[in-house]
Design brief:
The protein is α/β, with parallel strands linked by helices and 322 residues long. (2R)-2,3-dihydroxypropanoic acid (DGY) binds next to loops. (2R)-2,3-dihydroxypropanoic acid binds next to loops.
Length: 322
């Protein structure tokens, strides 16, 4: 007789292929509501489960982790970011936490490029004008944006995604400048200028793209004081986490023109978006699309399941965080 399959709570609707694999390899229960569960529902649904497959829109704060049943031994998140999970609290309870790095690098870097170009070239504003039937035809001075070619791109966080953005933007003849906790090895740095201090990077950024994780140290990292250090008319891109930016400061800078344009894919307090952005033509606002390709979302799901499979087979999961 074969061993019983581990019991897995799947807290969201995931891509079909991912759910199919979860349902075939586990005794899985899928949250079919299409909405995230609140803390009480999540805890209730976890009764008797061996593991949880969660996503970035589930909240596993310390108080939730504390109330999870003893049976839960692993939380695998379908995301590279894991600030929605109190990893220390999970560690305390002897629970393993895993994430899904690598597989979303390309899609997220592509999104940063899209945000950069769309913001710089006023494409959002142009599209809105056209759809509103308000486009009166080409003129020599209409929707003039900022050229990307040859400009200085400052990258905050030169991990996998930051490096993939640098790689792409070198093809646009951009000069790469970066701030990172540690300087990259020369071969990986590939001629990019390193700034140990973020404040020294900022005056060298015609474009600034954020790629750092959200931690207590990076919360509101881009604040009014730092924005003041950017060249006038800089373009700001955020595909990392919304809370890395002080929204009030960025909105004020977009209003004054200090920041010419912003391309944002992530927001503090998602899905709520600071209302101050809504009326700003120079803010291009995407609904957290960074990893949203079929290929990437499948790969994220499979990576999360690989981590679960390894754990239940008694091995160390590849992407173990605790
Ligand atoms: C992640 O994986 O952290 C993303 O933000 C979800 O797309």
């Amino acid at each position: 007789m074969s061993a019983p399959k581990p019991k897995l709570l799947v807290t969201q609707r995931f891509p079909k292929a991912v759910e199919a694999r979860a349902l075939s390899d586990y005794e899985a229960r899928v949250n079919e509501t299409g909405a995230s569960w609140g803390a009480d529902e999540l805890i209730e649904a976890s009764a008797g489960m061996d593991g949880l497959l969660v996503a970035a829109n589930d909240s596993l704060r310390g108080d939730v982790i504390e109330r999870l049943p003893e049976s839960v031994r692993i939380i695998a998140t379908f995301s590279v970011g894991y600030e929605h999970i109190d990893v220390a609290a999970a560690r305390e309870r002897g629970m393993v936490v895993t994430n899904t790095p690598d597989v979303l690098t390309d899609a997220t870097a592509d999104m940063a490029v899209l945000l950069m170009l769309t913001a710089a070239r006023r494409a959002g504003e142009g599209e809105r004008t056209l759809r509103a039937g308000a486009w009166t035809g080409w003129t020599p001075t209409q929707f003039l944006g900022t050229q990307v070619t040859g400009k200085r791109l400052g990258i905050v966080g030169m991990g996998r995604i930051g490096r993939a953005v640098a790689h792409r933007m070198r093809a646009f003849a951009m000069e790469i400048h970066y701030h990172n906790r540690n300087r990259l090895a020369a071969g990986i740095e590939d001629g990019a200028a390193f700034y140990a201090d973020l404040d020294d990077l900022l005056p060298n950024c015609d474009f600034l793209s954020l790629h750092c994780p959200l931690t207590p140290e990076t919360a509101k990292l881009l604040n009014a004081e730092r924005i003041a250090k950017l060249p006038d008319g800089a373009v700001v891109v955020n595909s990392a986490r919304g809370a890395v930016v002080d929204d009030r400061a960025l909105i004020a800078a977009l209003e004054s023109g200090k920041v010419a344009a912003a391309g944002l894919d992530v927001y503090d307090g998602e899905p709520n978006v600071n209302a101050g952005y809504m009326g700003l033509e120079n803010a291009f606002l995407a609904p957290h699309l960074g990893s949203a390709t079929v290929e990437t979302r499948n790969a994220m799901g499979f990576r999360a399941l690989d981590n679960l499979d390894a754990f239940f087979a008694g091995a160390d999961p590849l992407d173990r965080l605790s």
